[in-house]
Amino acid sequence: MNLQKLTLFFCLMLATLTVSAQDEGIRFTHGLSWKAVLEKAKRENKYIFVDCFTTWCGPCKMMSRDIFPQKNVGDFFNEKFVSVKMQMDRTAKDDEEVKARYADADFLAKEYAVMAYPTFLYFTPQGKLVHLVVGTDSAKGFIAKSAAAFDPETQYYTRMENARKEVGSDPEKVKSLVREAKKVYDGVNMTKLMKTWLQVMPDVYNKEDLAFLDEMTMRSEDPGFTIFLRQPAKVDAVMGKGFSAKKTGQIIAGEELYSKWKGEGEPDMKGLESALKKKYPQQAGKLFGMFRLNVYQRNGQWDKFQAEARRFVEKYGAEIAPAELSSLAGSIARNCSDPACLQSALKWSRQAMEAEASEPMIKSVYAHLLYRLDRKPEGIALQKEVVAAYAASTEKSGEYMLKSAKQLLEKMEKGEKTWKN
């Protein structure tokens, strides 16, 4: 056999082995819409298995790489399920099949309140959601958890449906079920149970119940979001000034801004700002201003960052939490050299210090800015206080923060450069 034929022989062998290996694992359906998948499952009298994943999710990749291709996994799923991979995020590299399923992925994410990745959903041949598994597992463990989808006694959603009926309107029992749903990332029952809990509670405007509401509010679809958004004065009277704005702001920014920006390049600023103003007009100005600052910071656009930071603080200074104000000042201390901007940052840092004088991190930013503005003895003396505070701290992060504070102090004492630009 000559070299050319030998090469062809090995290529064919490799292709055969690759196809064989792929056939041994789960055979996912391709080219079918969600509606077509439902029809196929009903026609073949098979349950439906949906792998909800994202391109950035490490555990999702692990399951696809290490678990789904295994023969015992394939033997179990291929006999009993119509299996579907549903990509829940969008990227520039998406192929035509993924793009064709964008609408279906959005529907599944919203309809079944997907909260984490990977999430595995299990439906009956008639299309009823009956079971849920979240996270990674061994092949044996994953098969065992998936097998629970066939028995009403072990089907997660069936069991929760029965449990909801049993607890009725007992607030404490409902609260216990809410916690169980959250623990397994079950957004469907979290929402239903929270609505029940709110209906049977005469008054939630006390510290214990608002803290519970805060714990269980992670999305704009969660019932608690509406309370924090529409009743900020009543909530803040119990939880402290700015509590509601911070809670709703984190959720709104995450859903409307950061989920639509991959952290690289400059997003569609005009489009995002317009959409945000339309949906949340009262919150849009401050939230988008902070988003713009984060984009400039991530992209290293420090000239734009400095100008925007000064405008932002001038407009929203009274509403900015001390930690956020200090963070803006710290970014300028580490990355900017314009004396006028450093003076502005020093003013912001001093304002944060006056509000949170005991917080070492805020104090360290002020010390750094003093050093940057040639007030070195003052800055060094203050940074020594920061090091001492971290050395006495019993918090878990204390060791890391102590190391960072010491490194900054050493540079300051040596008169070294402490900034990037």
TrEMBL record:
InterPro entries: AGR/TXD, Ssp411-like_TRX, Thioredoxin-like_sf, Thioredoxin_CS, Thioredoxin_domain. Residues 15-151 form the Thioredoxin domain. Residues 1-21 form the signal peptide. PROSITE patterns: THIOREDOXIN_1 (PS00194), THIOREDOXIN_2 (PS51352). It comes from the Bacteria. Keywords: Redox-active center, Signal. This is DUF255 domain-containing protein. It comes from Chitinophaga caseinilytica.
